[in-house]
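For reproducibility, we list the full input for the iron/sulfur cluster complex.
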Amino acid sequence: MMSNWVEVGTLNDIPKLGARVVKAPEGDIAVFRTADDKVFALRDKCPHKGGQLSQGIVMGYRVACPLHDWKIGLDNGIALAPDEGCAASFPIKMEGNKIMLSLVPEDGCPNK
Amino acid sequence: MKDKLVVIGNGMAGIRTVEELLKIDPLAYDITVFGAEPYGNYNRIMLSPVLAGDKTIDEIMLNDEQWYVDNGVKLHKGVEVTSIDRVNRKVIAADGTEEPYDRLLIATGSDPFIIPVPGNDLEGVIAFRDIKDVDTMMAAAKKHKHAVVIGGGLLGLEAANGLMEQGMSVTVVHLMDKLMERQMDGPAAAMLKESLEERGLHFLMEAQTESIIGKDRVEKVRFKDGSEIYADLVVMAVGIKPNIKLAKEAGIHCERGIVVNDTLQTYDPTIYSVGECVQHRGVAYGLVAPLFEMAKVCANHLARMGIGRYEGTMTSTKLKVTGIDLFSAGDFIGDASTDELVFQDKARGVYRKIIVKDNKIQGAVMYGDTIDGTWYFDLMRDETDISEFRENLLFGQAHLGDSGHGDDNRVAAMSDNTEICGCNGVTKGEIVKAITVNKIFTLDEVRAHTKASSSCGSCTGLVESIMSHTLGGDYSTAPHLKPMCGCTDKSHDDVRAAIGAQGYKSIHTVMEAMAWKTPDGCSKCRPAINYYLVCKFPELNLDDSQSRFINERAHANIQGDGTYSVIPRMWGGMTTPQELRAVADAAEKYNVDTVHVTGGQRIGLYGLKKEELPAIWDDLNKAGMVSGHAYGKALRTVKTCVGKEWCRFGTQDSTGLGIKLEKMSWGSWMPHKFKMAASGCPRNCAEATIKDYGVVCVDSGYEIHVGGNGGIKVRATDLLCNVKTEEEVLEYSAAYIQLYREEAHYLERTAPWIERMGLAHIKEALIDNPEKRKELAERFNFSQTFMQDDPWEERAKGGEAHEFTPLKVIG
Ligand code: SRM
Ligand SMILES: Cc1cc2nc3c(=O)[nH]c(=O)nc-3n(C[C@H](O)[C@H](O)[C@H](O)COP(=O)(O)OP(=O)(O)OC[C@H]3O[C@@H](n4cnc5c(N)ncnc54)[C@H](O)[C@@H]3O)c2cc1C
Ligand code: SF4
Ligand code: FES
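The corresponding predicted structure, in tokenized form, follows.
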């Protein structure tokens, strides 16, 4: 499968338990950093009513949407039960401190 | 190799424990369950609606056999365990199966009590305990006419009602002179009997059964006084006794039930026990709410998390007979030291009695209209001081002021498409469906599944009423002190006390020291702990922006479409042509979609992009305007009227006072938003009596009012006191705010806080004790020296820039 790696910044650009936005032609992508310095990327659009996930509170490997508090898994974009839906997840690879983001979302989620 | 957990008893308590265990540590054990009944796990309390024809057996299954497969739990269905070999740590079943265990959980429930009279073993004499009994009753109803139910308690009346619905002629035989004497007092019991008689039930009171007569099958019941009645079916519902046979034979210490400690451990440390078979602190329970609490604690210890104690449960009772509403909880008889508040309206069939001691509810019994039952129960459990609304207590919560839903709301009568939760658009039907389809019992689960009551919370009472109507019985599993959230068993007060006593200085230390169950907490506990730390140590700048809701992080209010609003402060609702010009210029420059005069006497600009915020703030700053905190759990607005300066009725300078109040307190973080107002005379044009702190100017000085709320649930203020000077108004205000900041739970506004603590408590701190008032005010002013930096200015100068700029722009 094609991927399309772009350097988007370094780990230090994102606060721990926080997120920043990457503006891409197909729509915003939220890039999260967890307490243990893992980085994940999701389409910045909550499967519920489109809330910007980048603005939510990060906890463990989840983010709470700022609009109505749905919890979305950072590693797979899937809404925590009993809510249903997903936000597309984008591959990340770290090169040292540099964050490489693929603009090709993982398969499996219709909300690209 | 994983440890083996064996569970004896496939009932409500045992399987609930397994569910809780799977939730916290699915890999801890290989689990094996023995169940004497030939089914999966079902909701025993719903047998009554099944008998009444309102539900089917399929609808009350909680976990079908697939559930056991999916969760890797081995089920021996229809297999009774006959002995426990504690030396070799294994259980032996009737069919010869043996299972070794490392931990054993006994959840054998209870056995119905069968009165020892001749003929009690005849065909057609049964108890009311399981699916088999219900099947027998339904079959009997098809062939036979006369049913006798022995026992006029909860279970007996539900059985009698069900059999009547199945078409039988039913007589209830009761030993006492009152029905449900353990849950009802005289008047309520009499009203209950009257309405059941109207529905067609017959009663024989103070009747002692002597024998049951029949050849192959029951034919008659004979009483001590020699009288007899016909019976084709006799249901004994005279009580239950904990099923301790197995445990006793295995030498585990039992009294009335299997004796367990606060961790649900028996005298054999490898063996735990939960449910109706248990005796905890001398009490054996017969309702599900305590069992569910036990399950939670027990699972926690089985998972070796080692936190949580079961400390007993207050229970309440309801009768699951459609159309009959009764509720009882706690001590409803009282004694010489208690007061009795009684309301009775025979014609409407309504009766309420509340037992009060030292202004706290000890118990309640209600008949006819029980919509306030959950409210009384909450007040009782939380030991709320009721002195402030004592005179209205009997009339119910609706009479304390409520803009949402008033007296005419009767959950039972509502149609399925009545909207219950206005925030999330959830109807009664959806809630009922979620409860029945997903087999859920708790408010939290209803919130998770439907979102009802998960936003503003004003519909919580209604949702709880719907739950109790749907589930019957006692659905509430809320422990005495509510934990902050699912991440912990600790309450808000626990956390605050620990921060004070231990001096924890970061969210992480608090979570670690207090054994949080999740790594970073959640969107409920983290903002709360963050606030508690900021409040306790204002000088240390401990604020963690990642633990704040976006509004407080971005210092603007996020809108449904992801844009933000900007509302600058207009001190005391006053403005100038220069400020208006600056606002107008900013609105044009940034293409603001909407300019609105807000409910808080200010001007709001709507539809701004996040990236634009620092720039527009900079422009407004230049005109001398600062953040209005319209987004924060903080001081909001101070509304004023024009007062003495202009108004012909004005007695004092309410505008000037309002500005002083706002200048003193802006920038302070609070448990929730905080609003003030100052009116120039008792005409009260600034609506000071629905504010958190309101001042009404009078000829002789100032009336200080506290604890008002104009939002979801209107509450008029309480008058705190009268003072003579502006200085006093300011000092009282500072002290009161600080008391609120130090004592209220996060997200609790002053109105519910005062209702919880009692006005007397506030007066004690602020009026009876001038020293304390001065100290509070000093602490507030000290804290303010660190708080009054305009967040807009900081960010306009480039602070927190990462918050407002994209990480990268591609293409
Ligand atoms: C902007 C404003 C409406 C307006 O355009 O007039 C407003 C807007 C919101 N109010 Fe309000 N309230 C506004 C005055 C009020 C008032 C009137 C007042 O302050 O005198 C009340 C009733 C008084 C009171 O609070 O007791 C009010 C009672 C509420 C409540 C119910 C609070 C309660 O305790 O019951 C909420 C919900 C909440 O806070 O959880 C709320 C929540 C909200 C939120 C923050 C909802 C949200 O979370 O997004 C709205 C934000 C809109 C936005 O994006 O800016 N708003 N809100 C008013 C801001 C005034 C200002 O200048 O700061
Ligand atoms: C008709 C009815 C209505 C009720 N209504 C309400 C209500 O409205 N509200 C409320 O709170 N409570 C109500 N209750 C009470 C509630 O159902 C019980 O408190 C609850 O079911 C007890 O749970 P438990 O797990 O302790 O026992 P049970 O649910 O009885 O489970 C025990 C299980 O263990 C099995 N078992 C016993 N011994 C062995 C053995 N040796 N080997 C294998 N298996 C064994 C039994 O067969 C049984 O299935 C009602 C009860 C009944 C019968
Ligand atoms: S501004 Fe207030 S009343 Fe209006 S929709 Fe928003 S929260 Fe509701
Ligand atoms: S838009 Fe995300 S929870 Fe509603």
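Chain B touches chain A through 33 residues (CB under 8 Å). The CA atoms of residues 23 and 299 of chain B lie 9 Å apart. Both points were considered when choosing residues for closer inspection.
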